[in-house]
What does this fold into?
Amino acid sequence: MSETTGLLKEPWQYFERQREAGTFGIWVFLASEVLFFGALMLTYTVCRIENVQAFAAAGRETNIWYGTINTAILLTSSLTMAMASQAAAANEGLRRLILWCLAATAALGLAFLVVKGFEYREDIEKHLVPGTHFGLKQPTEQLFFGLYWIVTGVHAVHLTIGIVMVVRLTLLGYLNKFQLDENPEIQVTGLYWHLVDIIWIFLYPLIYLPGRSS
It folds into this structure.
């Protein structure tokens, strides 16, 4: 019996077909996510072009240190996730390495959310939440922070989903209820995680760098 037989799920009869279908499915899903975030970024770009000075002033109010730290955290998490995916694909019995890399990825994701929580708390204390008590003078500066809360909040939700997926893989693997070698779920989860990281790479300059070049 092939080692991959235990990974087969209905209605598939062949493991390769199942893996190809799973990979195709996640790419279709990721394409829809790219369209969603692309629309948000396009909206931001149009608003920024029409309100250059206001967006520059509002951008200077963001905490670039929090943003930079979180960028480093997510880049590191991409490395550990890639290591887990490659170790699983190698089919060389690297169970401990896979589990450690998955656990590290989930921990780094949680660290990102913790840092983001501190940043949100600072934003709230500075009255940078759009509304009647908004802390900046120009009305168009509220537009920047309205988009800021939307895009970072949606990104945080996506990251939370990714953390849950990675934690699930880690726990099932640790309890020996889940075959790690050649398991397509690890590769699929890795693709999702990398998308979330790439989206942040685009959000970082849009949110934290306006108004800081001069």
In short: The chain is about 75% helix and 0% strand. The chain has one domain: 11-208. The two ends are 65 Å apart (CA to CA).
